[in-house]
Amino acid sequence: RANYLAAVKSGIAALEIFEKLGMDRERCISNIYMGIVNRYQRQLERSLSYYQEAATIAETYGYDTLMASIWGNMGNVYYDLDQLDQALDYHQRSLEVNQKLEDDQGVGNSLHNIGLVYREKKLYEKALEYQKKSLALDLELGNRTNVGISYVDFTGSYLEMKDFENALINANNA
Question: Of 30, 65, 94, 115, which sits 20 to 30 A from 104 (CA to CA)?
Fold first, then answer.
């Protein structure tokens, strides 16, 4: 069981130390972790605040890899808040950075998340389009866990579309 209170206290202490020492990359990473911890605690506005601080640092110093992570995490928080247009915007930003960096794993994750947002928006064909692109990358990378997750997501999309035959096929592939 996670001890979130201890994580928050440690994170705040780390942020203070990194700021005093002028360790901007570490401060950026710590803000990302604080965003993650707060998201798991369902403190979504606080989570966004940490991600926004991390984004400011990452943009200032050109930490593109961290920027992709920050945008993706912000997309997840907006998804949790049911602010799907904003979630989509941040996941697309993450996708663009991951494509620029030629980070196939990051591209796959962004495509997956965009597919989830479209499914939540009930745009099932569009969701499947992104989910299939994500699956293709995961197969290429040999990422078996994400392949299984993709098939589960396909199943959900096909069920929503009342396409039970394809839902069953994909459930069996998972």
Answer: 30
The model's pTM:
0.89
Taking a C-beta distance cutoff of 8 angstroms, is the pair 137, 107 a contact?
A: yes
CA distances from 6 to 3, 37, 39 (A): 6, 10, 15
What residues contact 47, with CB distance under 8 A and at least 6 apart?
Answer: 34, 35, 36, 38, 39, 77
Residue 125 has φ and ψ, to the nearest 5°, of -65, -40
Residue-wise pLDDT for 97-135, tens only, equals 999 999 999 999 999 999 999 999 999 999 999 999 999
Rounded-to-10 torsion of CA 97, 99, 101, 102: 160
